[in-house]
Amino acid sequence: MSSEPGAVFWLTLAGTLAAGWGVTVWRSAVRRRRRVRRRERYLEGVRFLLDDQPDRALAVFLGLAELDDATVDIHFALGSLYRRRGEVDRAIRVHQHLMERAGIDPKYREAARMELARDYFRAGLYDRAERLFLELSEAGPDPAGALGHLVRIYEMQHDWKQAAATHERLRAVGVPAQPGAIAHYYCELAEAAMAERNYTAAREHLRSARREQRDFGRAAILRGDLARLQGQPQLAVQLYRRVVQRDFHLLAQVLPRLAGAARETGDPGAFDVAIAELIGRGAGNHAEIAYAAVVSGYYDDPLILECVHEMLTIDSDLRDLAAAFLPEGTAELGQERVRAIGGALRNVVLRHARYRCSECGLDSSSFLWHCPGCHSWDTLRGVAALEFLPRAARPRSPGP
Predict the structure, then answer these.
(1) Taking a C-beta distance cutoff of 8 angstroms, is the pair 288, 393 a contact?
(2) Is the pTM of this model over 0.70?
(3) Which residues 6+ apart lie within 8 Å of 325 measured at CB?
(4) Could you tell me if 391 and 398 are in contact, meaning their C-beta atoms sit under 8 angstroms apart?
(5) Rounded to whole angstroms, how far apart are CA atoms 271 and 277?
(6) Cα 279 from Cα 310, distance rounded (Å)
(7) How far apart are the C-alpha atoms of 46 and 267, rounded to whole Å?
């Protein structure tokens, strides 16, 4: 009799172990089947994606997100892929789905918010993007990234005050300062104030630009423009002369202004003095000045015509071109013919890109302070539009 309880015990223990082992085997088989099914669904989604069936791929991958958090990375990659392909509506669906999932890890939820804000930005929904980026800049994992996107939004909306304030916040989170960009914002504000004849506000904005970036070419040009508007052409001439002495690549922008201010002083010779000073200081040679004159459209001054004449004689291709304008038996180009050749060259230049961004290589037919390609400030430089223009005539990029 004493052995019966022991037998019952061992039988019970064996049954329990067998049941446990069976449950373990069953659960393992279920997990294995789930992994196989998830792998099959994943591969099915990839096939749909490769077969250019994005809607069916999206449905598959969203279904995977409901199965296992391990697939969250797949969804981030998928959302980024859709956004790069320009299918922003699908990217928004992916990231909204991740945000709305119950029980998702908070770090994934925040990452999905950031991606959703980028989706809105790419889609041009700037009000929604701004709202999300503002939240993320205050309580997100990457405040610098959110603030950087806010700067882009404010630049695109020409909200220069907000752009400047956001740059200050970037400084506070450890991003290197960009005083040049902030100075450009104040110059934009100054131009708007000058257009409204609010010269007091324009002057204050230009002071702010100077506090951010001293010896700033654009601000000096605008101070010269403001001086002309307020009846101070002598001051304008001085400011324009300083600009081209320091930033020779801006000569094409300054040349017509300098000539106009010199005329307003009642001393047209002031223009020739400024050009002669450039040559004497070695800031630019005759051919470089001539090319800037052709680009700007101001080549009607006798000294400028002399520079154009020299440019036409130092290069064999241009010399042959100029010879075609000479009547038979004539060996010397007169001012009228030099003026006519300058006009012909300008017509050719206008049909080609005259400026190129030193950062991204974008070509532009007009001068821009802000590159629309890489969004850098003050990176467009003049380029020779014709291959036969002499190298000396190509405006120099400023040294480091």
Answers:
(1) yes
(2) yes
(3) 333, 337, 340, 341
(4) no
(5) 10
(6) 13
(7) 75
* Owner of token pair 């450890």: 174
Amino acid 208: pLDDT: 95
The top-level CATH class assigned to 178-280 is: mainly alpha
pLDDT tens readout for residues 322-377: 776 666 555 567 777 787 878 877 877 777 777 889 899 888 888 899 999 999 99
Instruction: Indicate the CATH number for domain 8-172.
Output: 1.25.40.10
> Which part of the chain has CATH 1.25.40.10?
8-172, 178-280
Q: Give the helix ranges, DSSP H, for the chain.
A: 3-50, 54-65, 72-84, 88-100, 106-123, 126-139, 143-156, 160-172, 179-195, 199-212, 217-229, 233-246, 251-264, 269-281, 286-296, 302-314, 316-323, 335-350
- State how far the Cα of 253 lies from the Cα of 265, in Å rounded to an integer: 20
Amino acid 352: pLDDT: 73
The rounded distance, in Å, linking the Cα atoms of 216 and 222 is: 10
- Residues written for the chain: 400
- Can you tell me which residue has the tokens 């951010």? 212
The per-residue pLDDT for 43 is 61
- φ, ψ (nearest 5 deg) of residue 363: -95, 145
Task: Give every CB contact of residue 328 below 8 A, 6+ residues apart in sequence.
Answer: none
**Range in 185-194, 198-207, 308-317 with the lowest mean pLDDT:** 308-317
